[in-house]
Amino acid sequence: MILGRGSSIESFPLFGYNLADYDRLFEEKTNLFAELMKGSPVTWQGTTRAPLRDQDVVPHLESGPFPVWVGVGGSPESVIRAARYGFSLMLAIIGGPPARFAPFSQFYREALREFGQPPRPVGVHAPGHVAETDEQAQAEFWPHWRETLTRVSKERGFRPPTEESFAYDVSPEGALYVGSPETVADKIVSNLELLGASRFDLKFGMPGLTHDQLMTTIELYGTEVIPRVRNLVGHNPIARQPVTESTG
Amino acid sequence: MTTATPAPTEDGAPLPFPLVLGLDTFGDLIYDQDGRPLTHAETIRSMVEQGVLADRVGIDFFGIGEHHTNDFPMPAGDVVLAAIAARTTRIHLGSAVIVSVPTIPSASSSATRP
Fold this sequence. Notes:
Oligomer: heterodimer
Number of strands of chain B: 5
Order of helices and strands of chain B: EHEEEHEH
Number of strands of chain A: 8
Helix content of chain A: 40-55%
Number of domains of chain B: 1
Helix content of chain B: 25-40%
Number of helices of chain B: 3
Shape of chain A: globular
Number of helices of chain A: 9
Structural class of chain A: alpha/beta
Largest interface: A-B, 77 and 69 residues
Largest sheet of chain A: 6 strands, parallel
Distance between the termini of chain A: 11 Å
Strand content of chain A: 5-15%
Largest sheet of chain B: 3 strands, parallel
Distance between the termini of chain B: 23 Å
Order of helices and strands of chain A: EHHEEEHEHEHHEHEHH
């Protein structure tokens, strides 16, 4: 499970929350979630919901706490929060050079030590699209990336994408994993190493892409990108452990 | 259980964690070949097929990120994950992310979402 505050804020009016309470809500809900992970019964008190006293919460966890990650988009407070609760760190990198997140990994490891927590894995979540060739992947992805990001940029106040910025984003130094299986795999390997991360989640899709294009991305990611990544980092291609085994 | 060789870090020291390679989706609205948007329901049904394919081609993790907009009609990804879970055997399913501010654990929803 990956928790997050959400960089999209449409859930606040939808659920009747005030955006001014963003930090307090996230801190309290994370705190309560950490209590729930310890197992029932739960006793908890805060300011954002009614208190709980010896509350049985069902179903009881079958095999103990499951792995919890916190999605972080660039807030050092969120890194500290993840370390304090002993949750794993998922870096959401959707723009700019991924290299600028390297200090976050380092900071997170130091914070875990500071809080007396055991080492936890770091992951990377980033957008992308896979097709047979770089040209095809970029041609399919760019119009929809431009349209969605242009709209989001107005809502959130950042610069809309241009052909030049897109060319940078899909280059080896940029944040987007758009290209052939080989291009995408090589970029994953280099950024996992750069960020000291052991997990990569490709955020695939963009409003406007077709079902067939998404299915092709999934197929190429599973059959070509992943074997190449495992091979490049010295893995047996079929060696795999479930996420729960040592990341909990 | 097969033991994976840890991935190397930049200084060559082994990582203590297995390599995990997954996919995340936000329920991005799907269009047809002619550039017309599918319905929200069609988009969600397609996502179940996507999760099933991800399992079949050996992907470690399939995550769904909560959104509540016309372009990302995915308010309750755990329900979609349950549909995928019914048709898969191996892949790990999870949230990416579940927006914990309103959702967890409020009076209106379960504290045990995936």
